[in-house]
């Protein structure tokens, strides 16, 4: 048993959680943008919860879910466009004589 039971340390050769998050962010930079958009929509809709007026709670929650999903799908689409640009346009610009 370890003397320091309160802290978890990754096995040797593995990244810590923060290093893994930063590496994943570099690999796909729009994932944190999508998460941030979803969190922003949810925070705004929670803020607006008091001022919803006569709107039913279920309708308010449906609108919140749709807006958060729109942010996530938008980030996925931007990520796909960015990946296509990186793979095809940049690569063909770097290697003009290989075609």
TrEMBL record:
Domain HIG1 residue range list: 2-94
Pfam families: HIG_1_N
InterPro entries linked to this entry: Hypoxia_induced_domain (IPR007667), RCF1 (IPR050355)
BP GO terms, sorted: mitochondrial respirasome assembly
A GO CC annotation given for this chain: mitochondrial membrane
Subcellular location: Mitochondrion membrane
Keywords from the named record: Membrane, Transmembrane, Transmembrane helix
Protein name, as recorded: HIG1 domain family member 1B
Organism for this UniProt entry: Enhydra lutris kenyoni (northern sea otter)
